[in-house]
Amino acid sequence: MKKLSIVFLLVLFAGIGIVARTVKSYPTIVCPTEAPNNIKLAAKEVRRYVYLRTGNLLSIAPTAAANHIRFYIDKTLEEQQYTLKSCGQSLVISGGSDVAVLYGTYAFIEKLGVRFELNGDVIPSLKIPLIIPPLDETHKPLFALRGLQPFHDFPEGPDWWT
Length: 162
Known about the structure:
The protein is of the alpha/beta class. It has a single domain, classed as Chitobiase/beta-hexosaminidase domain 2-like (Chitobiase, domain 2, 2-Layer Sandwich), CATH 3.30.379. It is built from 3 helices and 8 strands, in the order H-E-H-E-E-E-E-H-E-E-E. The chain has helices at residues 2-22, 37-54, 98-111, and strands at residues 28-30, 60-61, 68-73, 82-87, 90-95, 115-117, 120-122, 136-139. The strands form 2 sheets. It has a 6-stranded mixed sheet, with helices on one face. Strand 6 and strand 7 (120-122) form a beta hairpin. Helix 2 packs parallel to helix 3 (98-111). The longest helix is centred in the first third of the chain and has 21 residues, at 2-22. Residues 16-23 have low confidence and may be disordered.
């Protein structure tokens, strides 16, 4: 009976060791409570789309952890310019304004395979592992005002087609 108990304990500890080695440390989304609303939205959007693509629900905390996804406003950047910079499994999305941080967030989400189209988001059904790719990018828009022209006020538009 004593030998059976020892064998059981050894198998139990070996199983715990295997489980401990397979549990991964996922990044924490850092969003201070006093952050602007667009940065709070950015944190929620990263959490949502990471969950939809990987099945991992990341936690949102007001302070940084070892692995983190962090957002901040960098006044050295232009108003709509943003950067994506990763280091290991940590990512910093910064922008010249809170709107630029949101643009950077959606650029990162596109790197997860999500596409934003007129009729809705396209989210691939195949789950992917949560790996922050190596990133060191800075982008700014080609136009100050972006969007869709809902009114066809030009001769070549569909209003003139017969």
